[in-house]
């Protein structure tokens, strides 16, 4: 049992649930699906992470399943939905389902080939793209939307590289990762609320 990890993963899970209930479920269904591919995948991964850190090691595989889903289908959907947000475009149903299919196809490929390098490449491309989209938003006068996207990405980057940024902290790097991802998920939720119709 690793109680501090279970607590930090619980915080992440609760933030994901809050974001869904407060922001995502009020959005147009197709747009909601795009946000959910990323945010609910992270939430599910953290939920099973809690179970794993409480001593049920079998939950690790399920948590990793959802982590990979967030890093493939979720990442691709995140880029697309961020673009729609900043460009004030509505989502064509067919385009949304094509993006979802591409994302899930990539996820299936990673799952069955165990090719985790693809997962890293997708993240290395998707996260900077969302940052660029956020910066474009600032120049287009979408200050709130762009700022929340930028904050989200910065929190994700800090989470991923927290051992380099904060090498000698009293908190465990895994816990710092969970808390920073929770901040990122919250910021994405704040960005998503601007797509409420």
Automatic annotation (TrEMBL):
- Source species, domain of life: Bacteria
Q: Which UniProt keywords apply?
A: Membrane, Transmembrane, Transmembrane helix
Listed InterPro entries:
DUF6962
Question: Which Pfam families does this UniProt record tie to the protein?
Answer: DUF6962
Q: Where are the transmembrane segments?
A: 6-24, 31-53, 65-86, 95-112, 118-139, 146-164, 176-192
Q: What is this protein called?
A: Uncharacterized protein
Species source reads: Emticicia aquatica
Ranked from the top, the taxonomy reads: Bacteria, Pseudomonadati, Bacteroidota, Cytophagia, Cytophagales
């Amino acid at each position: 049992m690793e109680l501090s990890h279970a607590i930090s993963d619980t915080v992440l899970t609760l933030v994901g649930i809050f974001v869904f209930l407060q922001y995502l479920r009020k959005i147009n269904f197709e747009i909601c699906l795009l946000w959910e591919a990323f945010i609910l995948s992270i939430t599910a991964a953290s939920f099973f992470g809690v179970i794993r850190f409480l001593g049920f090691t079998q939950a690790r595989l399920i948590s990793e399943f959802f982590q990979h889903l967030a890093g493939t289908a979720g990442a691709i959907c995140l880029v697309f939905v961020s673009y729609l947000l900043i460009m004030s475009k509505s989502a064509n149903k067919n385009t949304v389902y094509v993006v979802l299919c591409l994302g899930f196809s990539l996820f299936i490929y990673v799952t069955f080939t165990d090719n985790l390098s693809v997962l890293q490449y997708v993240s290395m491309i998707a996260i900077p793209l969302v940052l660029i989209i956020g910066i474009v938003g600032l120049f287009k006068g979408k200050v709130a939307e762009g700022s929340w996207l930028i904050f989200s990405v910065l929190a994700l980057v800090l989470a991923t590289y927290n051992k380099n940024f904060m090498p000698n902290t009293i908190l465990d790097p895994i816990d710092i990762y969970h808390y920073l991802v929770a901040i990122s998920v919250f910021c994405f939720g704040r960005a998503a609320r601007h797509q409420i119709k």
